[in-house]
Amino acid sequence: MAGGEFDFGGFVASSNRHAGREQAGRVAYAYEGDRAMMRTLSKMPPITLAAAALVRAYKRFLKNQYLGTTVRVSEQQFPRIHAIAARCAERLDVATPTLYVANSPFLNAYTFGTQEDSFIVVHSALIDHFTEAELSFVIGHETGHIQNQHVVYGTLLHVLRTTASLLLRWISPPIEVALLAWYRRAEITCDRAGLLCCGDVEVATKSFLKMATGSQKLYAELDADAYLSQLEEGRHGFGRFTEAFATHPYLPKRVSALRLFTESALCREALSLGEGGLSMEEVDRRTHDIIQILRSPGATEEP
Questions:
Q1: Band of the pLDDT at 18, cuts 50, 70, 90?
Q2: How many helices (H) and strands (E) would you count in the chain?
Q3: What is the pLDDT of residue 176?
Q4: Which residues are known to be catalytic?
Q5: Could you tell me the residue ranges of all domains in the chain?
């Protein structure tokens, strides 16, 4: 980045070098559907143009907005949250990310910025509702976006769906469709990162169920198996196609995909669950079957 311009070629080259190290490092957990879409996005000129415009706007506006409307986490300010972030960063072998706490009643967290200057925003309601272990899953998930070089594309998607400038509106619809398809896959990658940080699939599952419910009075009665029974029933009917316009796969799919990941040799070794397990190729193939929207032969969502 020089003179306020975004060197997208440099960003792609950096991503490709990073990808070459994946199998030797912890990013080997990434979902192949995510990585394939990242390669596709890097070859689409409208998206590279929009990404360049986004980073210029980010430097002028987005970061200052969060500095002025949220509270930055540090060792002095909310040290418990800072310690969780530091542990997640150590686990994923990245620098401790900058965190902000935003006043919001919604259970949510997200990552914004550029790859060189990214930050995580955690809503205050999430901190009130989640245990420390569950926060570790969520913050680990968001740290996964940073580790896997998702930040520019993810921020671009947010801007297009909320406050896209007039400069970008003419190219917004095709870009948005492509980014949505990618982001649903990126979420699978980052759910895996969250699990590697919290170390317990039941903690991760409880986090998903809390997000689906949102009522502290009902958390003690949540039943994961009963919830997962909604997955197959939800595959039928025209309404299932609304997922194609969502940023995240439906929650039962995410729970099932994450539980499948715990059967991989990679996850079992990382969490000291014993030897053996599925290859990541097999896990990714079966994950595709879980998260795809269209179920008829030859008509799947994945390219």
A1: very low
A2: 15, 4
A3: 83
A4: 142
A5: 8-291
